[in-house]
């Protein structure tokens, strides 16, 4: 039985997901079958292309097993037809076909998952973002394609999942759905018309089955894909690798624009204004980066211990702050958070840690900060591709920690800032 479309429409409105950023760069879209990408993300692909991004589609199978009773010749013909249909659908969206066909067996993708991972690795190397099926989707090929894409994508690639059969076959209140990571792409009238034209290209999926049975995509299923498109952010499950930060600093000595961007300048000013005390005896700043915030903190503390786990960042902070104690250390170590500090400032660092390391850092802060000492957390509200958690998750975890009392909570469109006091 198909879930009513209205149930999903109301759920999306109720959860009000943030908009999925339109990638201006190289977007690689992984699909298990030709039409998955069009059903779930045609409007988004069209928007990326219109914004100047490059859209590349990788299709794991030809979808030749859509009708299980078909013989070998019929399956081969269906596979050829579905390839042609995808090319036509992409043209309806205004995209020139840029499709890589992997030709793996349809309806058996899980058995070929290692092969799929190896095929995807080189295709995702220089991508800015990757769309792939949601690993919780009820079709086993979709789930396998999603798992393979997650394993193949390098740390610097934004990973986003799209549900397909989950929409017509599951209810939106299913607890397996990660609504806390939901994203949406809204479709205007032109986008809806273009998507409808693209879906109409998949004639083999819209016509009755060869044995006279219902089509693969009957009208009640298609209705689920006519409206706004739903996605889920896919965070890393482990901490950001040190090698990723080494790559960033090798490409640019100031990879986040800390010396030039207004966001960074404004954030430092807000941090300075939110410090409850004029002076601190001993402050610590793990994840000091290029040392721009370090300079302000050094003027507010008798002693400042700055640290970073990336050698290039340590060198940059030392150059920007001659004579300062700058250490190569990673959270949650005591070298980064020494005992007896009365201020700790963690800026743009916690969401890069694995959840277990965030918990260990909270324990270390509770030991290192003297009673009455202040903890400042400040993080960008977006989701970095290397980060296993978002700012909201990290800040919520610390605000709920009974060892700290909240003093300041600042929320704006760019970043979150919390000041907590050690009990």
UniProtKB/TrEMBL annotation:
<dbReference type="InterPro" id="IPR024078">
    <property type="entry name" value="LmbE-like_dom_sf"/>
</dbReference>
<dbReference type="InterPro" id="IPR041698">
    <property type="entry name" value="Methyltransf_25"/>
</dbReference>
<dbReference type="InterPro" id="IPR003737">
    <property type="entry name" value="GlcNAc_PI_deacetylase-related"/>
</dbReference>
<dbReference type="Pfam" id="PF13649">
    <property type="entry name" value="Methyltransf_25"/>
</dbReference>
<keyword id="KW-0862">Zinc</keyword>
<feature type="domain" description="Methyltransferase">
    <location>
        <begin position="285"/>
        <end position="373"/>
    </location>
</feature>
<protein>
    <recommendedName>
        <fullName>Methyltransferase domain-containing protein</fullName>
    </recommendedName>
</protein>
<dbReference type="InterPro" id="IPR029063">
    <property type="entry name" value="SAM-dependent_MTases_sf"/>
</dbReference>
<dbReference type="Pfam" id="PF02585">
    <property type="entry name" value="PIG-L"/>
</dbReference>
């Amino acid at each position: 039985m198909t879930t009513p479309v209205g149930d999903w429409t109301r759920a999306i409105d109720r959860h009000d997901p943030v908009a999925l950023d339109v990638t201006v760069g190289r977007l690689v879209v992984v699909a298990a079958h030709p039409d998955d990408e069009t059903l779930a993300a045609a409007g988004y692909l069209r928007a990326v292309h219109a914004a100047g991004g490059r859209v590349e589609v990788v299709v794991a199978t030809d979808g030749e097993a859509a009708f299980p009773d078909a013989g070998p010749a019929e399956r081969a013909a269906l596979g050829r037809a579905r390839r042609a249909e995808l090319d036509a659908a992409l043209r309806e969206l205004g995209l020139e076909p840029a499709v890589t066909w992997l030709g793996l067996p349809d309806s058996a993708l899980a058995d070929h998952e290692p092969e799929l991972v190896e095929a995807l690795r080189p295709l995702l190397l220089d991508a800015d973002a990757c769309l792939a099926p949601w690993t919780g989707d009820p079709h086993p090929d979709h789930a396998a394609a999603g798992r393979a894409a997650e394993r193949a994508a390098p740390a610097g690639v934004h990973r986003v999942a799209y549900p397909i059969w989950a929409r017509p076959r599951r209810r939106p209140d299913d607890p397996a759905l990660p609504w806390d990571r939901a994203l949406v792409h809204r479709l205007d009238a032109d986008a809806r018309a273009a998507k409808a034209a693209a879906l109409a290209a998949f004639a083999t999926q819209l016509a009755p089955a060869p044995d006279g049975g219902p089509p693969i995509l009957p009208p009640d299923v298609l209705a689920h894909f006519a409206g706004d498109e739903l996605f889920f952010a896919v965070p890393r499950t482990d901490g950001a690798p040190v090698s990723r930060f080494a790559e960033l600093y090798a490409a640019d000595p100031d990879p986040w624009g800390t010396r030039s961007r207004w966001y960074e300048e404004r954030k430092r000013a807000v941090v300075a204004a939110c410090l409850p005390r004029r002076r601190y005896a001993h402050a610590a700043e793990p994840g000091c980066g290029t040392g721009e915030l370090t300079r302000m903190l050094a003027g507010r503390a008798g002693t400042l211990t700055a640290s970073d786990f990336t050698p290039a960042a340590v060198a940059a902070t030392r150059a920007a702050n001659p004579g300062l104690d700058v250490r190569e250390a990673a959270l949650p170590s005591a070298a980064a958070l020494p005992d007896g500090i009365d201020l700790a400032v963690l800026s743009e660092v916690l969401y890069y840690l694995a959840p277990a390391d965030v918990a260990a850092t909270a324990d270390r802060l509770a030991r290192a900060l003297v009673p009455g000492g202040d903890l400042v957390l400040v993080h960008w509200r977006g989701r970095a591709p290397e980060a296993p958690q978002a700012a909201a998750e990290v800040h919520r975890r610390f605000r709920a920690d009974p060892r700290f009392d909240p003093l300041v909570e600042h929320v704006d469109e760019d970043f979150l800032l919390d000041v907590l006091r050690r009990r």
